[in-house]
Design brief:
Elements: H1 3-6, E1 50-54, E2 60-64, E3 76-80, E4 85-92, H2 94-104, E5 116-119, H3 122-148, E6 154-160, E7 166-172, H4 180-190, E8 193-198, H5 201-208, H6 232-237, H7 244-247, H8 262-270, E9 279-280, E10 285-292, E11 297-302, E12 309-311, H9 313-324, H10 360-366, H11 373-384
Parallel strand pairs: 7-8
Antiparallel strand pairs: 1-2, 1-4, 3-4, 3-5, 6-7, 9-10, 10-11, 11-12
Helix pairs in contact: 3-4
Length: 385
Amino acid sequence: MGCASCGNGEKSPRGCKNNGTCSSGGCNKLDVFDWLANISLPQGQTSFDLVEVRFKNARKVFYRNSEGLTLQTGDLVVIDANPGWDIGVVSAIGELAKIQVKKKSPNLKSSECKKILHIAKQDQIDQWIKGRELEQDLLTQTRTLAQNLSLDMKISDVEYQADLTKATFYYTAEGRIDFRQLIKDMAERFKVRVEMRQIGSRQEASRLGGIGSCGRELCCSTWLTDFRSVSTSAARYQQLSLNPQKLAGQCGKLKCCLNYELDMYLDAIKSMPKVDGKLYTEKGDAIHMKTDVFKRIIWYAYKGETGMVALKPERVAEIKKLNKDGIKPKDLAEFAQVKEKVEEIGYQNVVGQDSLTRFEKTFSKNKRKRPPRKDRSSTNSVQKK
């Protein structure tokens, strides 16, 4: 949801305090709920001096509140960019920021962080908004310059520094790119300091956002902050078809959601017997077809037959033990799972008001009986005479 849908007539969204310029393009993108806001600190304990500040497209950095400013979540602050200054939105303060530091940067020292200078003034905010308005035109011109130089790179986003002295360009490329001439052309045309920053395809998808195949917003652009490696073994454990078109996300890599339920599948598979071998019976050799780890059912089928036999894991282990001892059972049907017959409760017309012909008797009683046409014609002729 952007500012156009939640803003008022003055292009100022309600509550987010961004003055109509949401830094992430959405009011709730990678937002953090301060669940420790109403909890007071013990006596004698000072508040945590590091503050989490959010920039464009959910880029977050920790800064030191050395001036002891009274800050709230959503405040616009001026930070030291060295050289220059920049504006960001406060996303976490106090004990919540302390938890975020332990989670993201456990070895971070307070002295290594840059300072928060002061709360942003109106003229600084206006300059910051002006830089945001220039970003799209700057991105279009830069892509044209890169295309003229035949550079095999994709420039996906640009971020202006609030003092309009520096522009950071984010790009993706498969190999190493020599963009020295590109930087010279950009610096000469735009009259700003240029920084090129290469990102991966997953980071690009998180910055641009989009709708996944599930119909919801991408996890990486809403709440997912760490990108763990995803392998095809995760799909194999979950018995998914190894179709690249279905397993790949918008970034072209394997979907991050393949790791969400992987631990549950691995725990369930531990209690299941190995299904890599065959089951030998007097009827023939049975091959493993599929497994439902949560229903705990394993399906086997004989060679040349279409039907499958459902077995419990305990039964499969029992048959394998018999085969190991040199014993072949007659048929897998002896060990098949017996399904309980469940009576299906169909629809019952309890009230008796769902019949389409329930009004026919009532209407037939109220109908007036009219004489046939012949009788009426005869009576009319008699009257005329």
